[in-house]
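User: I'm putting together notes for a lab meeting next week and I want to include a structural view of one of the chains we've been expressing. I don't have a solved structure, so I'd like a prediction I can at least talk through. The sequence is below, exactly as it appears in our construct file.
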Amino acid sequence: MSACDVAMQYLHLIQTAKYEQVGTLWAEDAVFYNPLGTVIQGRQNIQTFYANFLQRITPVVRAASVTEDASGRACVMELESKMRREPDGTWKTDAKAPFSLSAIDRFTINDRGMIQHMIVYTAPPNRWMAP
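Assistant: Thanks for the context. Below is the predicted structure for the 131-residue chain, given as structure tokens.
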């Protein structure tokens, strides 16, 4: 299994609102640089983050592009989501909004096909940071 295969599984779980299952894609000792700007270590902590965070924001998301390195161990996915900006500057999921670039995710997998390292770059930088 390649890194982009895993990235597409990740996307599918989010698109089908199986948020509590996203953490199962991670290695026990994984490291996650999340969209809130903090670092989370370990599968259980990452799984807890996804179950809580995605349930709160319920994203409508799709892949705009998916690129794999020659080794098949790293994948970069550009994600677009349907969101609108509120008058107070916060972002809210809005299924009627057009898709726009929301994040760039970089996945690295280990020898067992588990996510070992992931970093999320958000666009704009504060898009996902609303309480």
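A couple of points you could mention at the meeting. The mean pLDDT is 90. The two ends are 36 Å apart (CA to CA).

User: Perfect, that's what I needed.
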